[in-house]
Amino acid sequence: MSFSKISLWFSCILMSVIAFFYYPKWNKESTEATISWDISGYYWYLPAFLIYEDVRQLGFSSSIIEKYRPTPANLQSFKHKNNNYVLKYSSGQALLMLPGFICGHLSAKILGYPQDGFSIPYQFGIFLWGLLVSLIGLFFLRKVLILYFSETATGLTLLAISFATNFLEYGAITNAMTHNFLFTLYAILIFFTIKFYTSPTFKNAAGIGIIIGLMALTRPTEILSVMIPVLFGLSLSWKDIVSRLVFWGKAYEKVIVAVIATGVIGSLQLFYWKFVSGDWLVYSYEDQGFSWLKPHVLDCLFSGRAGWLIYTPVMVLSLIGFYFLFKKNKPIAMPFLLFSVVFMYVTFAWDIWWYGGSVSQRALVQIYPVLAFPLAAFFQSFTTIHLKSILVTAFGLFCVHYNFWMTHHCHYGGLFVAGDMTSEYLKAIFLREKMPPEGLKLLDTRKIYNKAIKNPLILMSPQDTATYIGNVCLNDTLQFSPAKKFSLPAKEGWLRASADFKTDNKEWEMWKMTQLVIKYYKNNKDLRSDVLRVQRHLNQGQKVHLWLDSKLRYEPDEAEIYLWNAESKTSICAENIQLVFHKGE
Fold first, then answer.
1. CATH number of the domain that residue 518 is part of
2. Are 433 and 497 in the same domain?
3. Of the candidates 222, 487, 539, 569, which lies 20 to 30 Å from 514 by C-alpha distance?
4. pLDDT (tens digit, 9 = 90+) per residue, 404-419?
5. DSSP state, 467?
């Protein structure tokens, strides 16, 4: 058996073992289940159309959310001005999940489970189908890579993507997300594109059109995938462009078939919007949008929150590999580079650039089949064993270890907090197995002062009734404590805000956790804030003494301290609130 086939088998075995034996999401509950969070939003079409036949009012939603808790509230839809409910996400993913849904629906009837769309057979059906889609994607990826690269380069690329990137998370564990399905569709699109330019048949043209239509119906921005069949094989010279136009002219009937197939499938979303809202076009993401003039490039690549190259460093080799791909095959390198740049620009321009609870940049997983080409070109550039190849091997093994560590701590380990990560927190937990003292605070603030405080200057305490904000209990009606502002005694130093906290009903949603806030001012202008989300460190019914350390920066002249319940409806009490200044060491 060839090395690339062995690598494919190893990759498929890894995905299957992780999916079935390490973290099988199909048997998890609530927001850890297969059909939860964004996946449930994409999936909602299937029970709405095929079980409850309630597409406009979605009357079944409240009972499903109450019973299965896929999301804390109804995040799948919003109320339109015509009083119907419009699903937030596009319908393509639901269409792609249909085989898993059918298996789940039939199994539920046979096994005596509720045929409600969310019982165990549905969870398992969607999970199993998602895993099969992953394996199909790897199969087609090998088929296209082996046409241009050696057995070794192809095999190493498959292993790198499966073992050292976040495809492991989205192909094996959270495999019902769009990114896994789109990964496979991109691999198949490249396959049909190569076949079309070798043999321009109606079948290959229809394959291109259907795949692009499905991708655009799944995530509208995937319409960018049309760049692949349009530009594939072009070095963008005038001669190439003329030759391509002549080719399309001779195969114009096939091109028309591809365009029609794309249009017919893509238009399904328009008909859905018209049916539920009366409008052909609906912007279902409401207040979320793009910052076209200020894309979050540096954040998306290098931030501690969700930087792609920070959490998936092996893909640096893919970016470097474009140099070698240009040397080897410019007609492939040029269109793939242009597509990657445009795709990343659009992806990074999204205002929610960290993409919720994302493991690395999950929105890039789908274009790994494209990025696999420069990655394979990089591996193929090594023809002998020398110092550079040894260093790259060591780096690759580190990336595998890092990726396994990250994947583990996204689930059982618990150190990786997807969507909330910070650079400081990552440094504190990097490759550790246990949380360092006070390390969890670095999800909210930048600094921790671990040494003994010497010569503290008490700015506020319960003993000074003139400055004390009082003992407070926040709830759904009282969201803010009184705020107190203090002049800072020096330009350099530390502030420590502390209090004793207790709650009988813990808030679990991060963005609704009570915040202990230190806000800084200069000349009455708001500079910045440091916060501590209290419930990260609090158990129900237990009083805990917590503190927030904040280092003075930007030469503020005043600081303000207060508590905010962050729109939570739960109650929490704080007493013995204190604010101390010290010079530090």
1. 2.60.120.260
2. no
3. 487
4. 999 999 999 999 999 8
5. T
